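General statements about sequence and structure are easier to judge against a single worked case. Part of our work consisted of pairing the sequence of a single chain with a tokenised description of its backbone. The amino acid sequence and the backbone structure tokens for this protein are reproduced below.

***
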Amino acid sequence: MTSARAIQPLPQGRYALGIDVGGTKIAGGIVDLDSGAVLGRRQVATDYQRGGAAILADTLALAQDLKVEAARLGKTPQVLGLGVAELVNPHGQIFSDHRIQWTGLDVMGTLSAVLPTVISADVRAAALAEARFGVGHGLSSFYFVTIGTGVSGVLVLDGVPYSGSRGAALVIANSMERHHCPACGHVTTGMIEDIASGPGLVAAFGQGAGAEDVLAAARAGDTRALHVVDHATAELGRILALLADGLDPQAMVIGGGLGSSAGPYFDALKGAIRRSLWDGVPNPLIVTQAALGPDAGLIGAACATRPKTRADHPTFT
């Protein structure tokens, strides 16, 4: 099991290293905690099929490289924040290995050899960045959704992402759904993530295309691509509308590589959410794209090293 060594108190400073380990890439940078600015950005492919040890080795090398770069720039990061595309409990323990297989490795101990380390779930890290420096700044509540290789989301209250009792309050599109046909009795099973994510679009469109190719075809008016996008966003839109109806946030903030893309996907998803909301009373819900783009995860990972108040635990995300 991943070590949960807590560092109390964390060193203070203006700068921190932020690293975002996702299903597609490992991105890192030197983050100004006062402004959210990123210096010395680095990125390598995750290639998660290689296994957890190889990914951890690459992450360690990236952290070491960033520390050297910070010294070259005359900056002194005091702590390292890591966001990972897995479930992370309130003590910084990783307890899933869907893609990043780190549950049996001492991730915190390994990276703490570079700097004291705080581990967060990547979705909560990105949501934290949006709360501090993005479109969530000034909102008392918003629901953050990231759509890319996978689909996840988290409620943010007064600038703090809600982790849930176990740290699992981000699984919104991975639960198995079963649809029973009353006419023939056939039961269809599947996950919304398999439909609405980047790989889901690729699988539905076929023709050897990537997610960006599907979106480009949709922008050009390709009927098949538009149908794939409409189906994906309709399925995800009803889930997000249910969350909006149940949680009643001020805004729904859509991020991630796919969710932040311009054009047909976001436009269709926004429409699907609006159509699926309860119409008993008017709902002023804001549906908008995230502001920080691909750097949100690494910025938020760094920000998680500086809790909102002294009462917050350093690994609250």
